From TrEMBL:
Its main location: secreted. This is Insulin-like domain-containing protein. CDD domains: IlGF_insulin_like (cd04367). The lineage of its organism: Eukaryota, Metazoa, Chordata, Craniata, Vertebrata. One of its GO terms (biological process) is glucose metabolic process.
Length: 53
């Protein structure tokens, strides 16, 4: 399932996916930030996991 996640919805999704591991807003694998990847375009939970610590 893919969806647009912006603002607090994006942060809530990251807390849900990453849990106590925490997360960061830029991925080493991709120069684009999570806002560009998940707010401007739809992304999946699997994509969000790439931003977990």
């Amino acid at each position: 399932q893919r969806g647009h996640l912006c603002g607090s919805h994006l942060v809530d999704a990251l807390y849900f996916v990453c849990g106590e591991r925490g997360f960061y807003y830029s991925s080493n694998r991709n120069q684009k930030g999570i806002v560009e990847q998940c707010c401007h375009k739809p992304c999946s939970i699997y994509h969000l996991e790439g931003y977990c610590e």
